[in-house]
Structure formats: C-alpha cells, structure tokens
Design goal:
By secondary structure, the chain is an all-alpha fold. The protein has one domain: Glutathione S-transferase Yfyf (Class Pi), Chain A, domain 2 (Up-down Bundle). It contains eight helices and no strands. The termini are far apart.
Length: 170
C-alpha cells in the first residue's frame, strides 16, 4: 500500500511519529483537520495568478484571493493568540499552509498584489511559519530565486515582471 496525497501522508506521519503536530484534544484536532482539508482550495485561489496566461486571467485570479484570505483571517482570530494557528504551538496546519503562504509572498514581490496587508491576523500568522528554519528546504533567498526561475520558464503573464538575474561582479 502507498499513500499518494500530501494531507493523507501528513496525517499518517502525525499519527505514527512523535511529537504530534495536531492537538491532542479530539475537537481541536478535528478543527485542525478541517483546516488542513481546506489547503487545496486555498492554494488554488492564492497561486492562480502564477498560472494566468493573460492579464485578464491574472486580474480575475487576483480578485479571488481575498475570499480565502478572509476565511483564514476569521479562523486565525478564533483559533489563536499567535504566533501560530493554535497559539504558541506549531501545528500541522502551520506546516500545511506555509508553502502556499510563501508562494503568495513571492508572487507579491514579483507583481504587487497587496492583499495580505488587509488581513493583519493572517499576515502575522504567515510570518510565523515562514520564520521557522524547518519550513525551508533551501535558504529562503535561494528558494525564491528558484521559484522566480520556474515562473519565468513557464512563461505565464506574470513572468514579464521578473527582473533578469544579474551576473555577480567579477
């Protein structure tokens, strides 16, 4: 048997390897699982700008970003006193959203979207997992450069705003 979906793999690892990243209390764990189930919807809405072929598609995608941001803003308000989704303890929810929050930050640097500033709790929550070393498989600047290179290679509409890499001074 093999697991093939990220959320299923994460849940399996959380159930079998200590320390658990989901809360121990069943209702809190169920709430967290509901929010990890929302990740694909969130990711699709937040990163759609990167895949737009035209300016009109980009603008339409950008207009959709506040919907999942508003949902998460309300969830973070209910869930925590910061800095993570469940307060002081890093959780599987933080780990699940971090890659897509990071991509939003990268996209916002390529072509200013400016949505996250309207959601102060979400913005603060975004910063917490992105500040953790465990979030990054590469140094953040290097990973952002790879992300930009990948965007450029895909030649989508937003790629025109990526500045060419400058050669190091000799």
């Amino acid at each position: 048997m093999s697991l093939f979906e990220s959320n299923a793999i994460n849940e399996y690892l959380d159930d079998t390897i200590a320390p658990r990243l989901h809360p121990e209390a069943p209702i809190e764990r169920a709430i967290n699982r509901a929010w990890t189930d929302y990740v694909p919807t969130f990711a699709s809405a937040v990163t759609a700008t990167a895949y737009a072929d035209t300016e009109a598609e980009y603008n339409k995608a950008a207009e959709g970003i506040p919907v999942p941001f508003e949902r998460l803003e309300k969830a973070v308000e209910k869930q925590n006193s910061g800095p993570f989704f469940n307060g002081a303890k890093y959780s599987l929810v933080d780990a699940a959203y971090a890659p897509f929050l990071q991509r939003y930050v990268f996209l916002d640097r390529v072509k200013r979207l400016g949505h996250i500033e309207k959601f102060p709790r979400l913005k603060a929550w975004c910063a917490a997992p992105l500040d953790r070393d465990s979030t990054h498989s590469f140094p953040p600047d290097e990973f952002e450069a790879m992300y930009r290179s990948n965007l450029k290679r895909r030649n989508k509409w937003v790629s025109q705003f990526i500045e060419p890499e400058r050669a190091a001074a000799e």
